[in-house]
Specification:
Radius of gyration: 15 Å
Structural class: alpha+beta
Number of helices: 2
Mean pLDDT: 92
Order of helices and strands: EEEEHEH
Number of strands: 5
Strand content: 35-45%
Largest sheet: 3 strands, antiparallel
Number of domains: 1
Length: 94
């Protein structure tokens, strides 16, 4: 698996039905071979950062709450990398 850089974690909301909102955490990452990509994970797997964590990286607005949440994040990133590797990209000469 390639080395992955987590660029940011932030709360994201989407409307699932009129008057009903679902909260997720948008995790944006990149690798040497892939430009930044985002995966969306359940907000319940994350917690607010401590002041110390926020001082280290202000772009991490959510932190995995435990090892299981961290593993779920890694698995979602692995799946996205594999999906991108299989994708037939469209390229244009401009």
């Amino acid at each position: 698996m390639p080395r992955v850089s987590i660029l940011r974690r932030e709360l994201s909301t989407r409307t699932v039905a009129p008057g009903q909102v679902d909260e997720q955490v948008a995790v944006t990452f990149s690798t040497a071979a892939l430009p930044p990509r985002t995966v969306f994970l359940p907000a319940g797997n994350y917690r607010d950062p401590t002041d110390e964590e926020l001082a280290r990286n202000a772009l991490y607005r959510r932190i995995p709450k435990d090892a299981a949440a961290e593993e779920a994040e890694k698995e979602a990133i692995r799946d996205e990398i594999e999906r991108a590797a299989r994708a037939a990209l469209t390229s244009y000469d401009l």
